[in-house]
Structure formats: C-alpha cells, structure tokens
Model the fold of this input.
Amino acid sequence: MVSKNQIKLIASLQQKKYRTAEGLFIAEGVKVISELLHSHFQPVYLFQTENVLPPTSIVPELITPEVLKKMSALHEPNNCLAVFKMREPQPFVEEGLILVLDTIRDPGNLGTIIRLCDWFGITQIICSAATVDVYNPKVVQATMGSLSRVSVVYTDIEAFLTQTKLPVFGTFMDGDSVYKQTLPQSAILLLGNEANGISDAVAQHVSQRLSIPRFGDLQQTESLNVATAAAIFLSEFRRST
Done:
C-alpha cells in the first residue's frame, strides 16, 4: 500500500523547490514513462491502476485511480505515474547545432521545443536561469519522452554567448529572412521569451538576426508561437546541411 508520506512526497514534486530538494521528478502516461525507463533516468517509484507498464527492474505497484489522483499533476490522471531521479548535469560539447533559450516561460512550449530538438537531431539545449524548469510535470508531459534523448542545461547564457566560438543566430521580427540564408551545420540558434523576445543584453551577442517573413495579404498577425517558430527555424537549418 502507498503510505500517506509517499503520497505527500510525490504530490509535492509538482513544485520546483521540492523537486530540487529531493532531486526527483514525476512522469505520467505509458509513452513518457516507457521512454524514460529505457534511458539513463533511474526510476524510484512506479504506480499503475492496471497492467500497462513494460517489465523493468522495479515492479510497478498496483493502486486505485483515487490514490493516483492524489499524486497526479494532471486534471484527468492517466493510468500510471512514475518518480525518477533527476539526471546529473552532462558535459557540454560545443559542436553541431545548439539551441539557446532566453527566458521561455510556458511549460508546454519548452516541452514541445525539446521534442522538436529530438526530431531534428539536436542533442543540447542551453537555457537561461529564468526559463521554466525542465522537470516541471507539464514540461515532462509535453516532451512525450524526448527528455530522455536531449540534454538540457541551465546557465548564464550571456556568459556562454560571450565565450562561444560558434556563430550566434538570433530570431527577431525584423531579421533577415531565414528562407534566403545558407545556414551552417555548427551554430547556435537563439530563441527568446514568448512576450518580449530576446532581451537587449543577450541580443548584443547575436552574429546574425533571422526572421520568418509573413506572407498574408493583411500582414496583421503579431507573431508566431515560439515552439512553432522553433520548428520552422530548425527545419531550415537542417535543410541547409
């Protein structure tokens, strides 16, 4: 049986301060949990309301939907939940295409961007300290398991951009059309905050400003969602290789 203390601990992991203190995070759903079980992430607890999880070193505990709901971060809980240990920070390799995120706030956007990086073969993301926590349950959910294949590091991105030898391509509304560029295989692609874009201090380190031109007759759409923009930019970088 799941103890009250276990339920309290797992429910507390919805908050960053408790995740950081415990070094643990939660994942929900068969797809996400299965991907993480077959990766470098170490499981601590596995729970399911029916036999849906694959065989692993830890035997999943069968619980009721009511108990699962007490631990879940979802409004409508799935049929399984897992607790994993956070991964130790990985050594950074300055090569290939690297994504740098300046204060991305929305968990769904970060999760989708991680999934896009997995699709386009980007293995490293550098995040500003103000970017949403990668172990936020909504981020983990949105990655659909891609968190197991993409390394996410939080650091002072101004300091990082100051010392990098790679060209830095920043995304702006008034930049050069990404469709008219020959883009390098090794570079940094910088994406900014959903509302304010790339901050002025970070923008000083940009080598070239890129944009996605609007083609509509009225030209009234204010901007693209940052995850949508990331998909277009990543596609163009890969098309140029």
Q: What stands out?
A: Residues 226-239 form the longest helix (14 residues).
